[in-house]
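Recall the central idea of this unit: under ordinary conditions, the amino acid sequence of a chain determines the structure it adopts. In this exercise we apply that idea directly, starting from the sequence alone.
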Amino acid sequence: MSIIIPTYNEEKNLENTLKAIRNQDYKNYEIIVSDSKSKDETRKIAKKYDAKVVVDEKRGMGAGRNFGARFARGDILVFIDADTKMMTNTLSEIVKSFSKKRVVGVTCPVIPSKPTIKNLAIYLGYNNLVKVSIKSKKPHVGGMCVAYIKKYFFDSGGFDENLQAYEDVSISLKISKFGKLFYTEKTFVVTSPRRIEEWGHFATVLKHFKMYLKFISGRKITLKEYEPIR
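Accordingly, the structure predicted from this sequence is:
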């Protein structure tokens, strides 16, 4: 198993993410930090936790995940954001889920690190959307924490680096052609709602609605529209 974390100036968040990985009850893994030339202590923190650090010129979550995957030795690729913490059983539940017939991808619920009513409402909506989409065989899975069989990840073409948003949803749809995605509720991850709080809760919902309409119609989402924290 290879855990891939795309980073750019994540010194404030990365250490807690790595600590949570080191506390897993499943130990057969490697950590790959795929960095986009951070200007802070990101790479130093990664090396402190014995992560394999790889550095690329490209920016963007899709590019970072793809670049890290090129160095992976494991048959399972786990993608997790630098501001997202696993529960102690997350990796073991991922492994168990892959033992199910024809499963090529696994994800789980995501909850905000700041559990305000507004934050919880947005993440509850996201989790329900993911669960329903998987059941309907049209998976819309985010990239905060998702695992794929390496062979099918590369067969599907990886993350689309031309997309400024929904590159994670795009690959979940592509990889579902090879088998099933599975949503396990026996674990969860905790992520930072920093982007939601930066944009505002109502603005976040509206922005994603507009971007999603563009995504499904094949129109380009601009970098200015997304304003990613990367």
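The chain has one domain: 2-226.
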